Automatic annotation (TrEMBL):
This is XRE family transcriptional regulator. SUPFAM superfamilies: lambda repressor-like DNA-binding domains. It comes from Streptomyces montanus. Residues 34-87 form the HTH cro/C1-type domain. PROSITE patterns: HTH_CROC1.
Length: 102
């Protein structure tokens, strides 16, 4: 059996601090948060795209971890998802959407 970072999914601490690694983690957290909230609402990607005023391909790309979560994009999706966006660097995952308090 071979050994290394990818055979056991253990990432050395020095890699965790790499800016590219952290950026990929943010994209994955964002993608999962969008998917989770959309699913909670029972919406398709086309429904979210319509409500957010963006092409469905953009939602697909976001949910595939292909888009950086900019402030503008996060605000646009939070409004469409009827949610508050939360970013908490000390938790895992760092990003999530939650219901707006009435």
């Amino acid at each position: 059996m071979s050994s290394g970072c990818h055979t056991s999914w253990k990432v050395p601490p020095e890699h965790r601090e790499d800016p590219a690694y952290r950026a990929a983690g943010r994209r994955m957290d964002f993608a999962q948060a969008v998917y989770n909230r959309r699913s909670e609402l029972g919406w398709t990607t086309s429904e979210l795209a319509r409500r957010a005023g963006m092409p469905e391909a953009d939602i697909d790309s976001i949910e595939a971890s292909g888009v950086d979560p900019t402030l503008e994009l996060t605000e646009q999706l939070a409004a469409a998802l009827k949610s508050a966006a939360r970013f908490t660097p000390d938790t895992q995952p760092e990003f999530h959407f939650e219901d707006l308090k009435a």
